[in-house]
Specification:
heterodimer, A: about 130 residues, mainly alpha, Arc Repressor Mutant, subunit A, 3-stranded antiparallel sheet, 4 helices, elongated, B: about 450 residues, 17 helices, about 75% helix, about 0% strand
Chain lengths: ~130, ~450
């Protein structure tokens, strides 16, 4: 996760997908910031790179919107840690995001098809 | 998970923490969370073979810029901003407790300013009572800024820890102005006196601005900071003046209900002392929230730039349609000058608030319309003044109007040119910014000329 100069996935795309991605990860179960970033790395095979710090303002926004609930906990090693859990409203938002992204992805897939037909020899690599 | 971190690195984490703490947008809990993240990352990097120092550097780098981070948090927390406003100077945040020392010094300076403002009463100069003579009023008209603004310089001297030499250099213009406006034998209520009264505060405000910039006034960037400061200061002052007015009215009303006349106390003490003390307190308020991004001036300029543009265009259309170009009436010309100064203020604040790197947008279009229509009106006003001068000769007011209009004309014309170039993508916004900031000393020079030269040139009439 090498921060600002992101050569793999564009900044805007990362920003746009951040909210559904975080909600989807929280949908797997309660977790905390560092683990969320690790999970994103894992899910994207390292292709989605975040500036680590930026996750936290996003989590606060989700909290303010009522999509997640936060609580502090002190695990055995004694360091305080903030855990996040998705709320029913967050699940609804995730559903809605999922629907919208499906539309976008479907549209893009259709568009790629004509693109591929036009440039037959060059097969673009599509992740996902 | 807790890896043993060497003390040197532990100290650097501590430094990083206190650096974040100074950012008012981040609360203590946010920083705890970020620290937990940092330590998680560091222990993983440590497990991968990096030493403490290396893993700290990598983890910090991955965390991203503190500046962007606090901006993101501030955007998320705009509701906190008013709260921060009340919490002391640069370093102080809620977790360090309120900065009582800073508040005490600010209030002390404000109180000193208020007392100094009332000091002439000891010598019987008191226009705030019914028995106050016209000479008393004229004394205050000439000296109000001289009594109040040195304390603003003092406030900046304290905040910026200015060296004594700088402070002395800043106070010199005050001393010179004090000698001039009091030694000149003005005709009481005459034009040159009124003009000096209007222009002196502008000049002294710019001098105080040099104090605000801690002497670093030659560069464009800091000057823009002072423009921003002026805008915020003005808005806060207006808000506080409004609140103070309500308070005074209510006070008088309540005491009237219990058959006590509070009006003399309010008129003699509360109003003048409050108005002067607020100059300092408002400066402190604006300073206290300096590190936070939210500004009110940009919001107001965004609202009023299109409205003023619309009004000016309507006025021009009205003039053309009715065939009544500007009537060379004196009141009309003064009104027009006020209008043009307001337009210039709007342009200046809009520029100070704009991100120079973004591309031209609708607001820049509205601004161009505003500037061009102001230019048209300025030319018409100038023509009217020149006509009046050729018809009736030179008077202080006409000369001051002529000078101001020429000053504004040059500024607006080149601004319009630069804005057009920017709109077409041929010029950068930074050029416009430099033009405006470069122009500011001219206002000071003009104000100085009106204060110092006009009375002599027009024999104090």
């Amino acid at each position: 996760m090498q921060a600002e100069t992101d050569s793999r996935i564009g900044k805007d795309l990362v920003a746009a997908s951040a909210m559904p991605l975080v909600l989807a990860i929280l949908n797997e179960g309660e977790t905390y910031g560092y683990a969320i970033l690790k999970r994103i790395q894992e899910l994207s095979g390292g292709a989605m790179e975040w500036t680590d710090g930026m996750l936290y303002p996003l989590l606060h926004r989700l909290d303010r919107l009522g999509f997640v609930e936060a609580r502090w906990d002190s695990p055995e090693n004694g360091r305080k840690r903030r855990y996040y859990r998705i709320t029913p409203a967050g699940s609804d938002a995730l559903q809605e995001q999922r629907r919208q992204w499906d539309v976008v992805a479907g549209t893009l897939r259709n568009a790629w098809r004509s693109f591929e037909a036009a440039m037959a020899p060059m097969t673009p690599v599509v992740v996902g | 998970m807790e890896s043993s971190i060497e003390p040197g690195v532990e100290a650097r984490i501590g430094e990083w923490r206190s650096y974040l703490l100074r950012r008012q947008a981040l609360a203590g809990a946010d920083i705890d969370e970020l620290e937990d993240h940092l330590r998680s990352e560091m222990s993983e990097l440590g497990a991968a073979g990096l030493n403490g120092e290396e893993s700290f550097l990598v983890a910090i780098r991955r965390m991203g810029g503190v500046h962007e981070l606090s901006r993101e948090f501030a955007r998320e927390r705009s509701s906190r901003l008013w709260k921060q406003l009340m919490l002391g100077g640069e370093g102080a945040g809620e977790r360090e407790g309120t900065n009582y020392r800073g508040i005490a010094i600010t209030v002390g300076i404000a109180a000193a300013a208020a007392l100094a403002f009332k000091a002439p009463a000891v010598f019987g100069v008191n226009p705030f009572v019914d028995s106050g003579s016209e000479w008393d009023a004229s004394f205050y008209a000439r000296n109000a800024a001289l009594l109040a603004l040195p304390f603003l310089v003092g406030f900046f001297a304290w905040r910026r820890a200015l060296p004594a030499r700088t402070v002395a250099a800043l106070l010199a213009p005050f001393a010179i102005a004090a000698v001039l406006v009091n030694a000149y034998p003005f005709d009481q209520g005459g034009d040159t006196e009124i003009l000096a009264m209007i222009h002196l505060p502008i000049l002294l405000w710019l001098v105080a601005g040099v104090g605000y910039l801690a002497g670093d006034w030659r560069r464009s960037g800091p000057r823009m900071d002072f423009v921003r400061f002026t805008g915020e200061w003005f808005i806060y002052y207006a808000l506080i003046a409004f609140g103070g007015g309500v308070l005074c009215a209510v006070t008088i009303g309540i005491f009237q209900a219990i058959d006590l006349d509070a009006e003399p106390v309010v008129a003699q003490w509360v109003l003048p002392c409050g108005a002067v003390g607020a100059v300092i307190v408002v400066a402190w308020l604006v300073e206290a929230k300096q590190s936070v991004i939210e500004n009110m001036a940009p919001v107001l300029t965004a609202v009023f730039t299109p409205l003023f543009a619309l009004m000016l265009v309507a006025a021009i259309v009205g003039m053309v349609a009715s065939g009544n170009l500007i009537d060379a009436d004196r009141d009309v010309l003064i009104l027009l000058d006020v209008l043009l100064v307001v337009v210039l203020g709007l342009v200046l604040y809009a520029i100070s608030a704009r991100d120079p790197d973004t591309r031209p947008g609708l607001m820049d279009g509205a601004q161009l319309v505003l500037v061009v229509s102001a230019l048209v009106i300025d030319v018409l006003a100038l023509a009217a003044i020149v006509w009046r001068i050729s018809e009736f000769g030179w008077t202080p007011n006409r000369t001051a109007g002529l000078g101001l209009n020429v000053l504004l004309l040059a500024n607006l014309a080149w601004t319009a040119w630069l804005l057009t170039g920017f709109w077409r993508g041929r010029r950068t916004f930074a050029e416009l910014e430099r033009w405006q900031t470069g122009y500011i000393p001219l206002y000071g020079a003009w104000a100085a000329a009106v204060v110092a030269v006009f009375p002599l040139a027009f024999t104090f009439e």
